[in-house]
Write a structure and sequence with these properties.
Layout lengths: L3 H13 L5 H8 L3 H13 L3 E5 L9 E5 L1 H38 L4 H5 L1
Antiparallel strand pairs: 1-2
Helix pairs in contact: 1-4, 2-3
């Protein structure tokens, strides 16, 4: 499944480096080459990315990836959703940290005792 996180990262990587190889993309995403290929193909099939062969490349499997107008629109939406999810995750972690600190205070221990 192509999550918002992967869409966001792919759009960002492709926009920064249209000549990125699938192998480089896979490395940057921390996924297998097959999954990177699947993600790119899904975005191409949905009309969000366009892939063109290098005209003068000796490697005929090398592509230039470009966000389509629909892809640019999706990038804006996915960026907003991804940001909301990360902010929610951050706020949840902050609440969990406050709770753990409170538990430590109740038990009579401080953070500094655990850090040494």
């Amino acid at each position: 499944m192509l999550t918002d996180e992967y869409r966001y990262k792919i759009f960002k990587l492709v926009e920064a480096n249209p000549e990125i190889s699938q192998r480089q993309l896979a490395r940057e995403l921390g996924v297998s080459l097959g999954k990177a290929n699947y993600c790119l193909k899904a975005l191409i099939d949905k009309g969000m990315l366009k892939a063109n062969n290098f005209r003068n490349s000796k490697n005929k499997r090398a592509y230039i990836y470009k966000l389509t107008p629909r892809g640019l629109e999706e990038k804006a939406g996915v960026t907003a959703r991804f940001l909301r999810a990360k902010v929610q995750e951050y706020e949840s972690l902050q609440a969990e940290i406050r709770q753990i600190r409170a538990e430590l205070e109740i038990s009579g221990r401080s953070d500094s005792e655990h850090e040494s």
